[in-house]
Amino acid sequence: MFQDGHEANMHLIADVGAPGSIQDEMPDLPEVVQHVFLVRKRGTESVKLASRCPGGLCRGRLYPESKGAENSLIASGVSLSPLSRRKASRQSGSAWLRAPSNYRLPELSSIDASRQFIHLNCQSVFALKDSFAMDPASLALGIAGLLPLLAKAIRCAKEYSDAVRTAKDAISALISELEALQFSVDNLQQFLKCNALADDNVTFRHTSVLLSCFKACDAKLRSLCHKLSQEDGGIRSRCLWPFSDKEHQKTLQELRNFAAWMHLALTVDGCRLLSQTSDDVLKLLGQQLEHFKAIQSLEETVTQISSTVKEQQRLLGDSLADDARKQLLDWISTTRYYQKHQALQESRTRNAGHWILQSADLIRWKDGSGETDKVLFSIIIDSLLSSAQTPRQAVAYFYFDHQDQYSQLPATVLSSILRQLLEQHRAIPEAVARVYKSAGSKGGLPQFECASLITEVTKGLGRVYLVLDALDECAPEHRASLLQTLSQLSRVPGLRLLVTSRPHIREITNAFTHLIRLEIVAQDEDIRLYIRQELTKNGIHDMCDADFAKELIQKLAQGADGMFLLPVLQLRTILKEPTVGEMEDSLNNLSNNLTEAFEETIGRIQSFAASRARLGMETLMILTHAARTLNVDELRDILSVHPNHRRINVKYRPTEKMILECCQGLVTVDARTGDVRTCHYSVKEYLLGNSHRLFPGAESAMATKCLRYFMLQDFSTGPWEEGEDIRSRTQDHPFLPYAARFWGRHVKLSGDNHEVQTALDEFFALTRATATANQVRQYSMGYREEYWAHEECLSFTPLHLAAREGLTQTIEGLLRAGRFGVNQRTGQGSTPIIHAAANGHVDIVRMLMQRGADPYLSNWYGNALHCAIEGDRPSTVRELVVRWGMDWKGTDGYGGDYLDSILPSAAGNLILEERGIPTPGPGEVLIRNHAIAVNPIDWKRQAFGIAVRAYPSILGSDIAGTVEAVGPDVDSFQPGDRVLGSGDAMSTGNIDHAAFQTYTIVSASILAKLPDNIDYKQAATLPTALGTAAIALHDVLGLPEPGTEPSSPTPGILVWGGASSVGTATIQLARLAGLKVFAAASPQHHAYVRSLGAVAAVDYRSPSAVDDLVAAAKKESVEVRYAETVPLVVGVLGRFGGEKKIAVTVPWPEQVAKPEGIEATWIRGDRIWNARKDLAERVFNGLLGQWLETGEVVPGKARVVEGGLGGLQAALDELKKGVSGEKLVVEL
């Protein structure tokens, strides 16, 4: 099947029963047979002795198929490289076909002719040439290839039935349909073998209906087996039912359809009919229906067959389309968003929480946006899902989890939402398909791209409900960025955003001030329902009378004070008491707040017998400091390892019940997934906040646990040869994958702890321990076999591992000791600097380069720069290129566009040329541009030569990107900083300071740091706009700057063109300065300018614009505006007394007389970069980064023009024609 990457159509295998001679010459075979293999059985193994292929005879090994149908073999073809073996091992669904009579096998004395057969992968069966036709007996053997797949699918489904705690009915239904299909396939196989068709000379070509049916069935079964086996998902995945309700029902229907096709072929007529092509069958049926339409029964039969064939055609097409669609959806996201929701559905207290659906605010939000405990959230989702049944509505949701912050990055969240919306979209939108195609199905979607595509998908739907639970549990370092995106999405027409969060997280409440807010407090009746349910579950009525139970319910409900968690913890405290009297004592001495309740619970745990107290506190420590959520098997495994143990003893593994008992209600186990977590985010916050007291040296303890785990004798035989051996070890030792992946993280966080360093030295001294850890890490992360191969993992040195994990202090020690070469290579050719560069560790790259590391040494993928690019590590790319001068050419795309968009002559179009990277001088910074915005002055300079001192020239000013290098005397910025700023080439005449190029030099005094919550294209809209606004307000008009004492009375400002880039910047800057802002803008922008801070907005095109503004403004007004509306502005200001000023962004028009009593001034935005650098430094260096991070300043709307630097001319042409309410940006 595989010969140097070329697909062969068929393999012929001769099964050799006993060792014998091998002939070097093989007979001529039909063209369709591309490879011939001679095979000898050796027990359960099969060894390839020789093969013939178009390139001649070769010898080698036949690899047993580890992931395919049982008892099948697959060969790697001529090439025996690891890549070929990897490809071969991924094939599945083998079929065995009898050799047609015209095939002559090698006449070797050792070959048993009765066991001669052709081996066809099922995919090859359906790729045969048109000239090749199979008789029924051969097809029967081909169909037999479905039986191992069915057996495997049934076995996997039954394994799920044992492992999954829920979805029993769904699993049972799937098994029933698979067994029914298995019965039909077996019957059809027997029918085809019985010679019933011998007299009819029926043959089957690859285009026949029946073979098409088998192909669709085979594809579905292989897909089903892969999903059920979850071979790349780890242990945890196998405890999770992998189907949503919709997927499950669709699968059942498809299996029923396949069984119906098999049943249809169980007659001579039916089989003869289905040997035709789909088009022939439909044509024949039409003729028969026309000829025999008087015979009702035949008409019904023919109609039924016709419908079946059409359905088969449709499903075959759907199957191919579904496969492509699924690949695209899986590329976007593989997050199982529905599992948390299913678990919450099953954990609800009956009838509790439904009051939320009657909330007036929720009804307002649903019909028209809003902000609202996880159970209530799941009830809302169910309500939305049940009501959103039309094609024009969609629901997407996401549950944040404090135990899983490691994997809930903004891009992960948004890609999950995008997938959900696409699943409810009939067709994949063109914008999504275009992005997928351009990405080549590699990598994932960045955050900004996800948001953009969500907006596009929403446009294709009538209404989208986007619901996010516990946003406060999103990692703080990612929250600001996600809030920025969500705030933008909340303004998309047709999108309804619902967010739940605790109210004291200010950045969340500030981000959604424009949304309806619904305060959720624990309802008295919900608390009472829950307590009654728990009392019944714990058999309280067998211990005490109804009066005590009533008193207990009353007292806990009354003391809840709007918190559900408090009575839950109180109830658990009471129910732990052994007698009624002690329960009463506990009831009468309850804590009044959560902190006291937590303290009492911790005290109770610590008062247990020593072993139980250790178990409880160690569990809490592990759950609080783990890098990801642990399931109960992983937790039990690591808790069983004691410091004096030399190997794992399962007798020391605590039961799930004992763990929960020792944690006294602070920990829960998810019934569906088996995940262990603290019962509420506030518990984890309390534990983290008191970690130094409760768990001193927690990270050191975690690091030591991981390192010593690999030094146990259980792993002394590792690394292992086969993936099955690794899988077996991880099943027996569930903590193994976690320790392998995160030992480095915990070592890094433990600092210079002596115990950790001792354990690390011991770990590095054991080659098999480090190789085992490395192999399990690579395997469990789904890497290719080359990465976890036995020899490759043994070839790693401690220097490789420390470089990969970012252990700077350890690297220093290893380099001083000199035991390992700085350029030592693994079996695949990887060097320590390749690992450091690929994982973004700039300080280690620098350290290794200083010690003589060669960054040009390559592994199979490429050198250090290639690997840094592939790993998306811009910081190490910059380090290698800028500081160490690595040649970027030939890096498969990176750096190939170190270009400038050159203006060759007056009024000429921009052209692309290469030029050298400039060097920053004193006080200057070199920026690698990621986004460039165009301004009206840019096309005017191009058309009229304004401020162009010589040609060729470079235009542009507004940029956002990263710092590549800094000049002398610059200490406020360093390489890697995200920044925005404006080049001042128009003032200085130095084209190195222009924006339309890959690199731009900017003065450090007029540069601002860019927080992570703002993307580059948004940031690029700000510099000129904000600089112009600052000059107008604080220089020309003399108004107070933000942070200074405002004048009295408060000045008013009229911003004409409030939705423009300068207008939006002016509104926000004026608001921050304490001014009252009135805006004139088109009606579609009124809500937008008000959200920025305008107290009123009017339509400047309305005949009553002057009267409307006068009516709105109660005090003096000044204005920043464009010249063409000067008469209207004069009309407004003329109606007021006091000092009146106008600042305009172009010279005063000659045809307009300057009004008496009104001071009019032309402002130049570039003035802030030269004459008023003091103002620029205060605004950009001092305040802008903070304003952007807190959301006090929001960048203007950006629209990307495709083409990078090559798209700048198109952007200028469009801007010249007129652009409203947005700024055009190109991305590099």
From TrEMBL:
What InterPro entries does its record include?
Answer: ADH-like_N, Ankyrin_rpt, Ankyrin_rpt-contain_sf, ER, GPIID_WHD, GroES-like_sf, NAD(P)-bd_dom_sf, NPHP3-like_N
Keyword check for Repeat, yes or no: yes
Among the GO molecular function terms of this UniProt record, one is: oxidoreductase activity, acting on NAD(P)H
First and last residues of every ANK repeat: 794-818, 828-860
SMART domains, per the entry: ANK, PKS_ER
* Protein name from the UniProt record: Enoyl reductase (ER) domain-containing protein
Q: Does the UniProt entry include the keyword Signal?
A: no
The entry assigns this protein to a family as follows: Belongs to the zinc-containing alcohol dehydrogenase family.
Record keywords, A-Z: ANK repeat, Oxidoreductase, Repeat
Q: Which Gene3D superfamilies match?
A: Ankyrin repeat-containing domain, Medium-chain alcohol dehydrogenases, catalytic domain, NAD(P)-binding Rossmann-like Domain, P-loop containing nucleotide triphosphate hydrolases
Q: Tell me the ranges covered by the Enoyl reductase (ER) domain, including all copies.
A: 905-1226
What's the domain of life for this entry?
Eukaryota
